[in-house]
Specification:
It contains 12 helices and 13 strands. The protein is an alpha/beta fold.
């Protein structure tokens, strides 16, 4: 008999998540939606579903305040970051402030998970993610990160992060860890600090992270490798410089090549993430990107389709030009090509 339920909603899961909200509604249990999709479309999400509330943006403090308010039967008007309905009217309270000191957040309640079910696909070992920071100062047209966590990066201290890693090892026996951030290598001091702290405590872990190609340098890679970093994933998106420029990625082929060379030098696996279907894409640019990936010789490469998620500049671009037809939210998944250009159909 829960008194309140919160559901994490993604764009592709929205239609299924609505069914859960309907069940809650029938049982008269208040139900809130959180996540990127409902943050960017709070009005539409409430009108199209039986959700009672939308928690907009960073959810921890807002959801806690909402739960306390409901439990104590207090008015909703003072809770920042919440949208809700009163009759037919949708109310949007003021945005919540972002959490400035991430060290104050408790570690995730991993005791509530069946941790053995979360398997790292390459090694088949149990693994978990550690969030090291939030926020992204870059402006890639296809990305939603800054809409959720803001444009300014906020980071946890190396000591706090490694305290969590130590708990993961000692309490859960997990030694494979993903450092999760919009750009893990954005703050050099933090990255080297984490690496040194892992070594200082003699923690034997295997870890991976993400990076931009223009934020990794040799000093970072040296310490990362020493402390157990085995793979760095790079969002390079395309190997066509005109497409990169249109996508506001602000990187070039020379930087991509240099990042892979640094990884090879320090025996760290490199993985490229690439997106097909950004503005300017043609059959020729797709073929050239594949050819250049092979020439660059990263250890892994992963290919996705460009998805015009709500809240992105890319979505506005394709809608304005009629490149996106009416597609159900459940198809907004990175293996589905949704956008059709005049010279490159989604098919």
């Amino acid at each position: 008999s829960p008194f309140f339920i919160i559901i994490n909603v993604a764009t592709m899961s929205f239609s299924k998540d609505k069914l859960v909200a309907e069940i809650c509604n029938k049982l008269k249990i208040p139900c809130a939606a959180m996540g990127m999709h409902v943050t960017t479309l709070p009005e539409e999400s409430l009108r199209e579903s039986k959700f009672d509330f939308v928690i907009r943006g960073e959810p921890e403090i807002t959801s806690l305040n909402l739960a306390k308010t409901l439990f104590n039967k207090k008015p909703l008007k003072n809770i920042r970051g919440v949208s809700y309905r009163i009759g037919e009217k949708i109310i949007h309270n003021k945005d919540a402030e972002l959490i400035q000191d991430l060290d104050k957040l408790p570690f995730p309640a991993r005791d509530l998970l069946k941790n053995e079910k979360y398997i790292e696909p390459l090694t088949q070992d149990p693994y978990t993610l550690v969030v090291t920071g939030r926020g992204c100062p870059y402006g890639c047209i296809f990305c939603t990160a800054d809409k959720y966590y803001g444009k300014k990066q906020r980071i946890r201290s190396p000591e706090n992060i490694v305290d969590e890693i130590e708990e993961i090892i000692n309490k859960y026996g997990i030694t494979h860890i993903g450092m999760w951030s919009d750009t893990f290598t954005f703050n050099k001091e933090q990255v080297i600090g984490i690496s040194k702290e892992i070594l200082k405590r003699n923690l034997k872990i295997i870890w991976f992270c993400n990076s931009r190609v223009d934020t990794l340098d040799e000093e970072m890679a040296k310490w990362m490798s020493k402390s157990g970093c085995k793979v760095i994933t790079f969002g390079v998106e395309s190997l066509d410089e005109k497409i990169l420029k249109r996508a506001n990625k602000n990187i070039n082929l020379e930087q991509i090549k240099k990042a892979i060379e640094i990884c090879k030098k320090y025996k760290i696996g490199s993985q490229l993430h690439l997106i097909f279907g950004l503005p300017g894409e043609t059959e020729r640019t797709i073929e050239n990107t594949i050819k250049k990936v092979i020439e660059l010789d990263p250890d892994y490469a992963q290919f996705y389709c460009a998805i015009p998620f709500p809240g992105t500049e890319f979505r506005e671009y394709v809608l304005k030009r009629g490149y996106l037809k009416d597609v159900p939210w459940m198809h907004y998944e990175i293996n589905n090509a949704l956008v059709s250009y005049p010279n490159l159909s989604n098919k």
